[in-house]
Write a structure and sequence with these properties.
Strand content: under 5%
Radius of gyration: 19 Å
Structural class: mainly alpha
Distance between the termini: 66 Å
Number of helices: 3
Number of strands: 0
Helix content: over 70%
Mean pLDDT: 81
Number of domains: 1
Length: 103
Amino acid sequence: MFRMLYRYINFQSELLFPMAVWVILFAATCFSSWFGDAYVEAITINSQITTYGLIFIAFFKVRLVIIHFMELRAMPIVIRVVGELWVVGVCSGILLIYTFVHN
């Protein structure tokens, strides 16, 4: 009986966790859509700040997908650090290129 209950709870948590991550990804997508539209509708926000915000949101979403849906969280720490550094490196590279090209 306890074994069945444990399996049921474990199965439910395995289903709920990816769904929670999906809800966060969906909320981030909705926020980035609103944030981008806020710039278009009210020109009071600087376009460079809007672009930085959208890039950060996009790479936050990339990080969530890599860690949770590509199973990087279950890998050894060295592989996880490489994945995290890849996300930080690519995000920094894109922001640097945008900064130098935009100015």
